[in-house]
Every structure is written in structure tokens, then in C-alpha cells.
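Supplementary Note 2. Why include the ligand at all?

Several targets in our set were suspected to adopt different conformations when bound, so apo predictions alone were not considered sufficient. For every target with a known small-molecule partner we therefore ran a joint prediction. The input for zinc ion is given below.
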Amino acid sequence: MLNREALLFSPTREGVPSSDDFVADDLIGAQEALEAEAREIMPYKFDACTYDLGYIKQPLFACQTCLNDRAVCAACSIACHGDHSLVELFNRRDFRCDCGTEAMGAGSFCSISHRNDAPANTRNRYDKNFKGVFCFCGRPYDPHTEVEDMLQCLVCEDWLHESCVFGASDSEPPLRQDEFDTMVCQRCVRGNSEVRRILERYAGVEGTGVMLVGSDGTVSGRPASAETGQGEVTPATAVLHGQVNANGEPAAEKRRADAHDDVEARSSKKAKVDSSPQPVSNPTQALSDPTTSAAHDSPVCETNDLPPASALPSECQAPPLVPPGETPLAKFEATGGRSNVFLADNFTSTWCRCRQCLPSFVNFPYLLDEEDVYEPPEDPDAEKSTFELGMDHLLNRMPRGQAIDSIQAFTTFSDRLKDYLRPLATSGTTITKDHIESFFEAERERRQA
Ligand SMILES: [Zn+2]
Ligand SMILES: [Zn+2]
Ligand SMILES: [Zn+2]
Ligand SMILES: [Zn+2]
Ligand SMILES: [Zn+2]
Ligand SMILES: [Zn+2]
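The joint prediction is reproduced in C-alpha cell form.
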């Protein structure tokens, strides 16, 4: 479970003294490091819930303390569920914050928007990730024990272990992370017929950048301009780094850094796509196409407008059609290959957009164009100490006399500890267990008062 307080209190965190006795300076230093870390993890304003923005792609947190493991936006995860047990899901598309809706049970209340018992957001798609379970293997995700990098499927948005994707756990993955932008998992390739129909035309066809990776590490379908050397690493791939691989950085933090770069990389790519002469406007023809009407397993996006057929080129540029069973993908599967499909950088420009091909993309606008991802506004108070933030926003909501388990409560508390220790630090006194115990005793009394 991705649990922010666990991240902070991890015994493996660097800078946290582990011996019984230490000088107060050590502890203050460690506490400041933790505070800086907390700000880095959550440098966002948490006074604006995304509910009014409707169904968007945004970072989500599933609350395991409230009813039904429903998910809330980043702001609500802090302001309304800060002391609850949360599963961090990173970016998920087409999702509206469920804080203060009936989905979270009667009496659910959003303290930012003062919304209570709003109707459940019926378009939100809940899957096992919201229960903290990920990948084909169904393992829970724990940022402290997870040693593997994880990949996010572009279609189902599940997070997958590299070893579950590639089949080998102890060797370097056959495809470097800078050799692909994103991937579609084998479950989607096999189980989602619409996705399969699109990908099968391209997958494994050399030059397309729609790649298959064999169990022996052979890669087919590399892009025509593929660089083979150690080119510049583009961090656009949706990768969740395991703790070990991230040089001891907490996975969530690393992922956030990636997500930030991701947005930049994607927006620059998007500009390129938008400037190309590919019109995108009216869906009528596409929506009435019988081959695209059964969108049982894909959420339909409201903005997936397609131009009328007459505005589209009639000449098809896709790889030639071959009989079913003879595509590289079918042959690959027949020999036991895992049909995870890897999409190279700039994959949105891979597909033919002729009048025959384009309608099959109507339910997958994210294949045609980079997605907009909501990023919570940065907190202008991020330089403020978290103690002050706690005073400003949260002190009046802190659970009294309970275990201290939110970042805010923690930092507020640890600031008091710092104040307690500062005079001892000044005099160079060695801190003993007794000092700490007497501090906790005073805390308990203060809380009961
Ligand atoms: Zn919210
Ligand atoms: Zn909650
Ligand atoms: Zn809320
Ligand atoms: Zn797995
Ligand atoms: Zn998938
Ligand atoms: Zn075509």
C-alpha cells in the first residue's frame, strides 16, 4: 500500500537516526530532511477539489478508510482524507473525484467543496487497483519492499511488474525504458477486440515502432529511425520505479519526478502532432460504424470527435492487410510469445488516419493524441514550514488523542519535538531515551487536556 505516513516513517529512510542515543542536532537535521521530503511529495495546493472539472485524467488516491475504497483527487487526499489509509494510483483517465459523493457511503462530506452525499459518479471505473492490488499477478504494491520497476498499460492503466511483462526477473529487460514511450498489456491485446484490431495491423511490423518482445529478448517492430546507441534518455515512459532501482529514493517521489517530465515531454510532442495537417472534428460517420459501436470494455471519451469521411484521405498507409493468423502478432502468440505491445516515442503519429482506419480509433483518442493530465496547482506556500501549513489548514481537524498518522499531524508534532530539543542541541547535550519519553509524556498530557 502506498501510504504516505509509511513513507515518512520508514525505518529505512536515510537520515533517520537509528541508535537510542543521539545528539539533538541529528534529530533536528533528520526532521528537516523529512519535512523537505514531505513538501517534495506533496508540493501542491490542497484547497481546490477537481470535482467541478468533471471526468479528467488526474492523480488519484483510493481511500481504504472510507467506505468502498473509492478514489479522491490529490487535494482531497490531503485535506479530507489526510489521516486515512490511502493507495496512490498515479494518473488515471476519465475520473471524477468521489469525495463527498454517495459512492463513499451516507454522510460522506468533502471539506474543501462542502459537498455531501452528491450522486455517485457513475462513469468512474473501479478495478482492483483501488483495493491496492496490481498487475497480472495481483500483488499489493508497497513502495518500501518493491524492488522492481513497474509499467503502466496505456489502455487499462494497471501497473505491471517488469518481470511479469517480460518474463525474466533477474536480467536487464530486453527493451530499455528510453526505447519505448508506453505499452499496452497482453491482457488488453488479447481481451479487448477493438484494441487488438488496431494493434494487430502494426505490431511486430518492422519500422512501425509497434514492438513485440520475445521471451529470448528479440524485439520486432522497431521504429524506422530507432537509435541503437545510448541516446538521450527520454523519461516519457510511464514507469514506477521500485525502491532499489531508484537508488533508495521513495518510489512515489521518483514517479512524481517522472510525471512532471512526462507532462513536458508530452506537451512538446502534442504541439508537433497538432501542427500536422490531420483534421479532427466530427464523429457522426465513425460513431455509426458498426465495428466501433460495441465499446463494452473501453470508456468512451466525450471529446473523441472524428472528421467526416469525405475530409479524410482515401489512400491507406497502414501496413498491408494479411489473413488472420498470419500477422506477426498471431504468429508471435502461436509460438508462446507474450503479446504485450510496446509503443515507441511519437506513437500517435504511427497510425494511418485514412477513412477506413480512423473510425476504429473512436474509443481510443489517447492513441491518436497525447492526453492532457491534470496537475494539481503547485503550492505557493511550499517554502513555508509544514508546521505553519498545519497551523493554517489542519490543526482544527486533527484527531485528538489518536495515533498521529498524517503528514500534517506528523510535521506539527515533530516541530514541537524540534522546539523541545533545540535548547538541548544548543548546549550539545546528548539526547537519551529519557528525554524522548518525557517529551511523549508531555504530548500525551497536552492531547488529553
Ligand atoms: Zn476532490
Ligand atoms: Zn477517507
Ligand atoms: Zn474532499
Ligand atoms: Zn506482477
Ligand atoms: Zn492493459
Ligand atoms: Zn488506413
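The longest strand covers residues 86-95. The chain has three domains: 4-43+380-448, 51-131, 142-368. Comparable summaries for the other entries are listed in the accompanying table.
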